[in-house]
TrEMBL record:
Main location: membrane
GO MF annotations in UniProt: G protein-coupled receptor activity; olfactory receptor activity
Superkingdom, taxonomy of origin: Eukaryota
UniProt keyword annotations, A-Z: Cell membrane, G-protein coupled receptor, Membrane, Olfaction, Receptor, Sensory transduction, Transducer, Transmembrane, Transmembrane helix
Pfam (any one): 7tm_4
Organism per entry: Octodon degus (Degu)
Protein name as annotated: Olfactory receptor
Protein's gene: LOC101581601
Membrane topology term: Multi-pass membrane protein
Span of domain G-protein coupled receptors family 1 profile: 43-294
Amino acid sequence: MKNFTASYANLQSFILTGIPGMPEKNPWMAFPLGLLYTLTLLGNGTILAAIKADESLHQPMYYFLSILALTDVSLSMSTLPSMLSIFWFRVSEIAFDSCITQMFFIHGFGVVESGVLVSMAYDRFVAIRDPLHYASILTHGVITKIGTAVLIRAFCVVFPVPFPIKRLPFCHSNVLSHSYCLHQDAMLLACASTRVNSLYGLIVVILILGLDVLMILFSYVLILKTVLGIASRAERLKALNTCLSHICAVLLFYVPLIGVTMIHRFGKHLPPVVHMLMANVYLLLPPVLNPLVYSVKTKQIRRWIIQMFRLRKGKA
């Protein structure tokens, strides 16, 4: 018992993993990671600038899109310190409290993004079901309340997460399997029962993320029902086209999330590099691709970007 307690007390840090089994290859990841973070900031910054500058984009749909862009940047930046530490500066050690803090923000912004995607599904439902009263239903006040509720929900859900982790004794390895801190990853290193941690994580996945998915699916069932009631085929296609960007954003977020969850629970026999790739795809790919999807599918944003390029070209 004395040795067990001493081992727990001596744990001051975790060791993060870059490319499993190939630490000498870590510097090769510096450039692509730097490119991904740059594209995240540039793409989402462009979306926010376009929405702010173009008055035609001052609509509920684009206010929700701006919240999504801010969430994507925040989620991506939550992983930046440890990514830079490993792949740029070759420092793999992270302090225990810093790891817990990073864990809180990564999971927190993940829950926020899920809530934002649900809000955007509701936005599309109102826009198609009752277009004449769209702006009067989703007023600035309503959007602010929805955004506040999403943030409060995420905080309440994720706030308890650090406490069960901090009470666990880590008397074996302190090497994490990713280049950033996740609850389920740190939990596997404990040498005591993690039943409470596992149960809480399962409850969050089912009651929060699972419920969000069901609400999005239910929204689209109602949207399809409304669209099929439209007489004109052209109007039906036009209505569905306004949902394509959101559908892509939903798939970009939930498909990698489900993949990471399944691999953590059932893919322990898979090579470590698979775990690393899936975890990085889950957090880095959606913030990069979401702005691209909305820029391609939204005429007003695409037009504003083209105008900005022409203005800069003219000044040059």
